[in-house]
Amino acid sequence: MIQSIQDRVKLANGVEMPWFGLGVYKAAEGEEVIGAVRAALKAGYRSIDTASLYQNEVGVGQAIRESGIPRDEIFVTTKVWNTEQGYDETLAAFERSRKRLGLEVIDLYLIHWPVREKFLDTWRALETLYKERKVRAIGVSNFNIHHLETVMNISDINPMVNQVEFHPFLTQKPLLTFCKAHDIQLEAWRPLTKGEIFTHPVVQALAKKYGKTPAQIVLRWNLEHRVVTIPKSVREERIQENANIFDFHLSPEDVEALDGLNEDRRLGQDPDSFSFDF
């Protein structure tokens, strides 16, 4: 049972990753992202997810340093963007991210998207970074089963995390089953569907039943599936609200009811048809 914002999952290599964290996609560099990370850390979050693409790594690093929280208590994820992929290119991109964050070691480094004809070389670079102990764990983002299998067929090290779009409209059960079978931790981005799901009658009924907000119901559903979850917000009150999900559990019947909302509907891009040319 996941009962606290401090609870962590042990990844395949033994590194412990918080089940719950803050995503900072579209949080502007400077005061906005600094304020968001500061609010999250104050609320008990110990995982921050950023990326080269987000252009806010400097602010994330500054907020972490200014928090006074010991570095080893905070789990930091960043990602290599599509235009930075390739073996040498990824090694250089990592150094840029590390410099911007102001951190000696990154806790988790991910391939942002499976760029065709490049992601295998990119993965080899991540293996190098891992073997050199510049990163504590490595993984991927937006990889479907066939992408994972392609990496696993050539790799000494399997991805430890796969960060994908995951919510009751897109339950990705085959991918979740595959990842569990191969000890790859699934992580959810856009878990709250940009709020689209909040007005659904099933979510509304469960919010009333449990005395929680629709957002809290959906975030708890993610955790009941043992999926790491990183909702994004820059508003302190929303950051605190999102974290208030550790004092209740959804019944198996209610988890199943939310599972039943699946439409295989993506609100983001499909990894198999995404244009990587930017």
From TrEMBL:
GO terms for molecular function: oxidoreductase activity, acting on the CH-OH group of donors, NAD or NADP as acceptor. The active site is at residue 54. InterPro entries: AKR, AKR5G, Aldo/ket_reductase_CS, NAD(P)_OxRdtase_dom_sf, NADP_OxRdtase_dom. The keyword Aminoacyl-tRNA synthetase does not apply. Residues 26-263 form the NADP-dependent oxidoreductase domain. PANTHER family: 2,5-DIKETO-D-GLUCONIC ACID REDUCTASE (PTHR43827), NADP-DEPENDENT OXIDOREDUCTASE DOMAIN-CONTAINING PROTEIN (PTHR43827:SF3). This is Plant-metabolite dehydrogenase. The keyword DNA damage does not apply. Belongs to the aldo/keto reductase family. Keywords: NADP, Oxidoreductase. PROSITE patterns: ALDOKETO_REDUCTASE_1, ALDOKETO_REDUCTASE_2. Substrate binds at residue 112. SUPFAM superfamilies: NAD(P)-linked oxidoreductase.
